[in-house]
């Protein structure tokens, strides 16, 4: 299964909603840590996608100039 940033962001939203819905401090803290982790994974994935696109564009530009 290939994870997408949308999947990670949806899980982060779920965790944030769960944190807001609980009265238990330890559960809220766990949910907030989970939210932060999901958001970090989404951001890491998005940075990787941007970098791959940049490299591909750079290579396409180099190949276009060589021809």
Structure description:
- The protein has 67 residues and is mostly helical.
- It has one domain (5-66).
- It is built from two helices and no strands.
- It is rod-shaped.
Number of domains: 1
State the separation between the terminal residues, measured CA to CA: 38 Å
Helix count equals: 2
- Helix/strand/pairing class, anyone? mainly alpha
Q: What are the main properties of this structure?
A:
67 residues, mainly alpha, 88% helix, 0% strand, rod-shaped
Short overview:
This protein is mainly alpha-helical.
Question: Helices and strands in order, then pairings?
Answer:
Blueprint: H1 5-21, H2 25-66
């Amino acid at each position: 299964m290939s994870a997408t940033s949308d999947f990670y962001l949806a899980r982060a939203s779920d965790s944030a909603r769960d944190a807001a819905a609980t009265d238990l401090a330890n559960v809220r803290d766990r949910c907030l840590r989970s939210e932060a982790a999901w958001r970090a994974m989404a951001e890491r994935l998005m940075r990787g996608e941007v970098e791959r696109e940049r490299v591909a564009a750079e290579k396409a530009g180099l190949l276009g100039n060589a021809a």
